[in-house]
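Structure (tokenized):
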């Protein structure tokens, strides 16, 4: 607790507080612009953090951007029926109809307040669970870590958008992309195909910039913009009354808890948390027929859950070094680039790092509430910015950021190549999250597997005899079988409906 108090005191000093405010503001602005996302913003910001005073300030800025970007997505979701972030998809179902009725300010106010409550409740879980889980994880050996990574990859693939096969394929391709370079165990070169520039492998930052940012630039260059009805917002009804708090209390708590626990599961993300909370609110409502027609309960459920997933997703990040979402994968990359090893030992070797993340999450949520409520009218004008004007600037910053990493033109080509790869994967409906998380976790999985095999003289028996490793392996197998069975059953039912 002393480390938490110390980290909070540091953030409340002028310079870190400024970085937190800047991160929340930039995140909210980017989240409000259709076509841009928090992952794009954070990925482009990572190279700039090398020039900051300390990695503490870098983490404060990045986590604040995370909070702001998820919250900002509700602006375009409500006013344009275009979610600024994927997490705000469910908000469009009721937020936009409310705006059409002239209740844009009220819809935004409900969403902003619900986002704050969701973030606050998830922070309670984050500060409560993280230290205990970190202590528990210090007893893990190489077999436990290997099976945990395996479980995370299977879970990510099984719950990704599209089929299980495509999710597994994306994870495998990500792991394959991490292989070129020096073998960590033997020191021998592998999969370089005679190219000297491949000897160092593909750096994480150019891969992230390519997959998440350049791919989106290519998408918006190729896809024509469609005309959209634009609605302006006012501050009317933006603040919740005491009666609103009483009416929405159960919905807020339930949706926040659902979002938090969905966020803790690796790789699922805010979109699934929002869908689950929205579905629960609709099923438990006395008037489910109102959902999708401008129901306030739908906006509250969606926004409380998607912000709550942030705190939930940070739990596996700070305790075990496992990314709970795509942005968490980028944050792990940022920690590695600053020579910090994510995982349970971080609480022992650098306790100020996880507690800085935890403290920033709390303070950023408070700032988000103030920034969003006070600037909604101004932020609603961001939807008028043509995306086509932003894309060349974004591409330029991507290429500069990848080059500045090691001053190598090779990294620029890597960024462009993985941009094309990311674009193609999205075109064929292969999810990007398993690809990137597979790229990041492959090195950990390989090193832990080899360590375990060396300790057991080449035997895989500990996979089945060590209780925790066996549990993780069993969960992986069950999830794999369950997902394939679910897809087979769904295809069979669709075929039967077509015949009938």
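Design, position by position:
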């Amino acid at each position: 607790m002393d480390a938490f108090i110390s980290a909070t005191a540091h953030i409340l000093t002028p310079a870190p507080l400024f970085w937190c405010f800047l991160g929340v503001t930039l995140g909210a602005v980017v989240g409000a612009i259709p076509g841009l996302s928090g992952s794009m913003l954070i990925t482009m910001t990572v190279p700039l953090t090398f020039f900051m005073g300390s990695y503490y300030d870098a983490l404060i800025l990045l986590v604040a951007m995370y909070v702001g970007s998820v919250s900002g997505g509700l602006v375009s979701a409500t006013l344009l029926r275009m979610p600024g972030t994927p997490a705000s998809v469910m908000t469009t179902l009721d937020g936009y109809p409310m705006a059409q009725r002239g209740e844009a300010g009220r819809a935004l106010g409900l969403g902003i307040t619900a986002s704050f409550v969701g973030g606050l409740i998830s922070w309670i879980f984050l500060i409560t669970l993280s230290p205990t889980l970190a202590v528990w994880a210090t007893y893990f050996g190489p077999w436990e870590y290997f099976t945990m990574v395996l479980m995370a990859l299977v879970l990510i693939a099984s719950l990704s958008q599209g089929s299980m096969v495509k999710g597994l394929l994306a994870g495998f391709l990500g792991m394959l992309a991490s292989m070129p370079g020096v073998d960590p165990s033997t020191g021998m070169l592998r999969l370089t195909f005679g190219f000297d520039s491949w000897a160092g492998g593909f750096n994480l930052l150019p891969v992230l910039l390519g997959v998440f940012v350049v791919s989106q630039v290519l998408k918006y260059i190729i896809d024509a913009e469609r005309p959209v009805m634009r609605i302006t917002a006012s501050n009317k009804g933006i603040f919740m009354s005491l009666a609103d708090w009483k009416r929405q209390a159960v919905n807020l708590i339930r949706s926040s808890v659902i979002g938090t626990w969905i966020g803790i599961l690796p790789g699922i993300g805010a979109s699934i948390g929002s869908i689950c909370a929205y579905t629960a609110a609709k099923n438990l409502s006395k008037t489910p027929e109102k959902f999708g027609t401008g129901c306030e309960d739908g906006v509250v459920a969606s926004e409380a859950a998607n912000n709550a997933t942030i705190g939930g997703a940070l739990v596996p990040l700070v305790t075990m070094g496992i990314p709970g979402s795509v942005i968490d994968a980028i944050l792990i990359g940022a920690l590695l680039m600053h020579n910090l090893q994510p995982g349970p030992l971080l609480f022992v070797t650098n306790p100020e790092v996880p507690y800085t993340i935890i403290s920033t999450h709390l303070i950023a949520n408070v700032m988000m509430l103030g920034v969003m409520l006070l600037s909604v009218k101004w932020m609603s004008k961001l939807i008028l910015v043509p995306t086509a004007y932003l894309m060349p600037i974004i591409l330029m910053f991507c290429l500069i950021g990848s080059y500045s990493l090691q001053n190598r033109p090779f990294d620029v080509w890597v960024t462009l190549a993985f941009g094309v790869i990311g674009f193609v994967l999205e075109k064929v409906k292969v999810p990007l999250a398993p690809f990137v998380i597979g790229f990041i976790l492959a090195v950990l999985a390989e090193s832990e597997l080899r360590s375990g095999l060396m300790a057991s003289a080449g035997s895989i028996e500990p996979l089945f005899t060590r209780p925790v490793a066996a549990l993780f392996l069993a969960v992986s197998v069950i999830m794999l079988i369950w997902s394939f069975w679910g897809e087979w059953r769904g295809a069979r039912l669709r075929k039967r409906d077509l015949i009938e």
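Reviewer-requested clarification: The beta strands are 181-182, 189-190. The chain has a mean pLDDT of 78.
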